[in-house]
Amino acid sequence: MRATAVRRTALAAAVASLALLATACSGSDSDAKGDGGASGAKDDASSKPAAVKALSSAELEKVSLEQGDVEGHKITKTGPEDIAQPGDVTVDKKECEPIGFAFYGVKRGTPVGNAGRKAVEEPKKDESADPEDALAGMLDVTSSLVTLASYDGDGAARSMAELRDSAAKCADGFTLSMKGSKQKVTKLTEEKVTGGEEALAWGLRMGEGDEAVPFKLVSIRQGGTVATFFSFNLGKTGEKAEFALPTALIDAQLGKLD
After folding, report:
1. Which of 170, 183, 188, 196 qualifies as a FRET site for 164, CA 20 to 30 Å off?
2. pLDDT tens across 15-26, in order?
3. In whole angstroms, how large is the CA radius of gyration of the chain?
């Protein structure tokens, strides 16, 4: 990797770090973030409302990921400073508000309980690499915000349905603003994910050309609880850059919800 590529990688790191700070707002006031269409759903949530009692925040904390649950990842709790207020985020299209709000963890509906974690993949070290390639390797890690939100009755299913509908209407992109800082979502693409009673995922891209940054958004419902994973990779930037869904995190979290 030469100087130009390193500069692009550094740009990706800066943009992605800002995104993590924003999305960390979902910490303890988070709601379901989900997607649009790629689904491993076992049932049609909208046609079979679940009569469930929501878990409290304390109960969600007990089933949230902890350090040591996922090999090769550092996991920490989100805190009160990570909570976003509804007025902090605006979206240019009304129909895109549900999905846009989901990126930043803005509270939707009436969740009874919330819990949040930050998970950062540990970088792979290659002592034989030259300095530029070593830097690229250190940045080539996936960071994720993992949130749990619980709802009484069919609240979780309705939250997922709202996100699915919003994503379908906004696949061509929209612009959102977090405390005045604008970010343009240029594309939403369905991805396959399985698990829980209903599973939805997107690949999305913010920015254009060489400065475009890919993100992943996954929402999975288990009963009245929605688990959400919003991820980026510090080393990926550019119009065709990609990275994999955080399947290890997803599997570990769902295992604790079963």
Report:
1. 183
2. 444 444 443 333
3. 18
